Amino acid sequence: MASSKPNPVRTAAFTTLGEKRLYIVGGLQGPLPSGTPTVPGVNQFASLDLTVPTWNANNPPWTIHPPLPFTIGVYPFFAVFPKSQAELIVATGDDALPVATFDLNSNLWSLADAFVSSYTSSSGVLAAVNPTTDTIIVPTGSTLATSPEIYGTFLYNIATKEFSVERGPEMVGPHVPATLREYAIAWSSVRGSVLVYGGRGELPDNKWQYSSSLLEFSSTTRTWKELTVSGPSPGGSNWGCLVPAYNGQKMVLFGGFTRDVLTPSIYILDVAKLEWTKGQDIDVSLMRFEHVCTAAGDSFVAWGGLNSANSSTTFKDPVIYDLKAGGWTEQFALTSPSTPSTPTTPSKDGSTPPPNTPGGQLDDSSSSNTGAIAGGVTGIIFVLLVVGFFFFKRHRRRQSQERDSLPTKNIESNKAGHLSDLNSMPPPPPPPSEPWSKDIPPSPRN
């Protein structure tokens, strides 16, 4: 396996193995030439090592692997890892949907039977895998050869080779088109479900209907539902990229279009709270769609894609977002080394939160630290008062003992002189006021 850079492409199939390595397969170089119905895909297979602690965007740790043993179609369909994580499963964009597997130990490809015949290939129809049940989930699949045609969510069990079809995401309501595609999709280990954001579908009148919903497919009930989320909405996004970060605690959505306008935005979803936070926009010259992305440690990485539908240039170097500091950087780091002096990640209400919190989320420990400091100061003052009162009581006791030890016979014989001496001594300190005697316990006796 050589160490060099892959050809920059768009629409590559991609997946990440355990936040350790990003795999990309196939793709296209540039848009389709005018009048050309199809363009052969780029037959390449590469991976990016995400375990390297730090590297620069212009010199990423790529590895080039043996290419696919056959010519792929226009759009590679998906690339996923089964539960065993021993092989990569890739489906091409051909109508027959042949499946190829790459053995990570032997570095060899092999062909397998298609899990559904006469599949209708379409750009932007993506898939995810449930690693618990080894089930590949295609949100909006369709077939041509069957009568009638089949539309819906395709489910294929890798182990048992069982194929089934369930209702598609349009079941949540008319605002989600039945022909939904170009959506962002990811498996959520925290929720144990597939998450789909955005996408668009073509209507009978040749117009587009956009989705701005966060949808969830439950493998248990085999149904779709729309999740209620808070924070700034990414809007009607299509061709964006959604990947988990921090072991699934966050989801990162980047790039694509917002109703046909290329967006520079990046959003971070707190999966437990179902709350979006908007990050720092990328420079407009680096906006993209049909790209691949991944996340590891404190870094989010996007690679490939196009900046314009009319552009023939694809991005060869990755762009990196520091999830901890909240800004774009040229340096990948599993652990963010520093925090910028001026945080650049707006919070959900548009203000700037403190740094050093993943995804720009406020750290609850900041308020508790203030309370701890105030409590510590109060405790120190209390201790000083108790110690002072202890020495005050001890001083009074010593003075009383000294008066009691004066010789009686000297006082009897020289009463006038000694009484005058005693009267000239400074009076003892006054006893403590009533609040002190109630608030502070008596000091221990010797």
Automatic annotation (TrEMBL):
Q: Which residues form a coiled coil?
A: none
Q: Which Pfam families match?
A: Kelch_KLHDC2_KLHL20_DRC7
Alphabetic keyword roster: Kelch repeat, Membrane, Repeat, Transmembrane, Transmembrane helix
Q: Which residues cross the membrane?
A: 371-392
Against Gene3D superfamilies, the record matches this protein to: Kelch-type beta propeller
- Would you say which domain of life the source belongs to? Eukaryota
Record-linked InterPro entries: Kelch-typ_b-propeller
Which stretches are tagged as biased composition: Low complexity? 335-351
SUPFAM superfamilies listed in its UniProt record: Kelch motif
State what protein this is by name. Answer: Kelch repeat protein
Species of the source: Actinomortierella ambigua
